[in-house]
Amino acid sequence: xxxxxxxxxxxxxxxxxxxxxxxxxxxxxxxxxxxxxxxxxxxxxxxxxxxxxxxxxxxxxxxxxxxxxxxxxxxxxxxxxxxxxxxxxxxxxxxxxxxxxxxxxxxxxxxxxxxxxxxxxxxxxxxxxxxxxxxxxxxxxxxxxxxxxxxxxxxxxxxxxxxxxxxxxxxxxxxxxxxxxxxxxxxxxxxxxxxxxxxxxxxxxxxxxxxxxxxxxxxxxxxxxxxxxxxxxxxxxxxxxxxxxxxxxxxxxxxxxxxxxxxxxxxxxxxxxxxxxxxxxxxxxxxxxxxxxxxxxxxxxxxxxxxxxxxxxxxxxxxxxxxxxxxxxxxxxxxxxxxxxxxxxxxxxxxxxxxxxxxxxxxxxxxxxxxxxxxxxxxxxxxxxxxxxxxxxxxxxxxxxxxxxxxxxxxxxxxxxxxxxxxxxxxxxxxxxxxxxxxxxxxxxxxxxxxxxxxx
Length: 456
Ligand SMILES: Cc1cc2nc3c(=O)[nH]c(=O)nc-3n(C[C@H](O)[C@H](O)[C@H](O)COP(=O)(O)OP(=O)(O)OC[C@H]3O[C@@H](n4cnc5c(N)ncnc54)[C@H](O)[C@@H]3O)c2cc1C
Fold this sequence. Notes:
Layout: E1 2-8, H1 12-24, E2 30-35, H2 71-78, H3 91-107, E3 114-119, E4 122-128, E5 132-137, E6 142-150, H4 168-172, E7 174-175, E8 193-196, H5 200-211, E9 218-222, H6 250-263, H7 268-274, H8 278-284, H9 287-305, H10 310-321, E10 325-338, E11 341-348, E12 354-359, E13 361-364, H11 377-384, E14 415-418, H12 424-427, H13 433-455
Parallel strand pairs: 1-2, 1-6, 2-3, 6-14, 7-13, 8-9, 8-13, 9-10
Antiparallel strand pairs: 4-5, 5-6, 10-11, 11-12
The protein binds flavin-adenine dinucleotide (FAD).
Flavin-adenine dinucleotide binds next to helix 1, strand 2 and helix 5.
Protein name: FAD/NAD(P)-binding protein
Pfam family, one: NAD_binding_9
Domain FAD-dependent urate hydroxylase HpyO/Asp monooxygenase CreE-like FAD/NAD(P)-binding: 7-154
């Protein structure tokens, strides 16, 4: 069978695209969703069952459907929740909401397009003479579609040192994928833990450790030793920002943003004022300026822009101030086993000195790799066959302003789109729900519009 649309992926982006397609496509259309994750809709972010793993965006901005902005808050209320639009719900509840939204749309059978969910990994892709793109699936099947939307998310970053050749004791003490929470059960309450990386994933793991009864020391090593900041309990109003009045250089931008931050009572109003114009701002920068931003400003951008819920921040700060969590700024050089412990050697930032952290566990929280295609065998193969092209900064794949893949040597008229972090080269801030949901709707609308035109 030839599908009108194949959506590849099983996280939020894939489900957001699918929900919009279900709302808009006629009953004659056929859609396939191919994902290798058993919990369609949850992805890495919303699979957690720990209530303390909160969203880092207030509930009022987390509706899956941008045209129904209160949808998530209403869903919380209808499920007995007491949360308001400005509160931070649990990520597990959000995963349930995403799945429920999809189920609600699928229940309306009358007039709805056909949707097949295929639990499999898309392993390869080829152009077919039938004017389609065909995917080879891990289960041996092949499916073909006239439109394809890639929603593959980002992969996990690898450790900067390769543990493959390490002795078995050392390997058994390295947690390469902390999202498999089963590792927490192996940690004794007094064990010393070294966490590599100091972003949102680190905070998640620290809180999960505490919830599992861990009371030992936690050393956090990252290049700059910077940790995410918190949202204000009463958020200040965003400062209106005219993107056209801003300079198109990173140094000029930083100067103006610092000045504006000094003029307002809370710097968060400047960061929040930037939200609606961030993509437009990014598109005004040359590739050299974008690369400069990634080299020099990215860690500061991340901690100010991707903030944690106020309660999460307060709980984490307590652990820092009582000395349970200690920060180290430097570069991991080697890992070895010494006297029954794991020893991480690192070069202290801006110094030549080497220091060491002794621990019982090392946890890789270097977080999501900024997309790129290296984490995905499918994308690497599509690149080899010129079906996609990496964007100039290596953040993901090259797409145009409508999220359609460009720069390839494809000949078939089948259309190929990407949604989510893979499109960071074009849009930059495209990792969180408030941005992805708008993109998902626009891509679905474009597919529906073109289908209507070709059937006219
Ligand atoms: C811990 C964490 C917390 C977050 N918290 C928030 C938050 O509070 N608010 C917010 O707005 N955003 C948050 N985010 C950002 C989050 O990434 C997005 O909200 C959203 O979940 C991204 O979804 P996605 O579908 O693009 O990617 P993912 O969730 O990564 O999903 C991609 C899916 O594609 C599947 N896949 C990959 N390759 C293939 C293949 N070849 N074949 C088949 N399937 C494949 C994967 O298995 C995966 O299930 C958080 C992210 C993380 C990691």
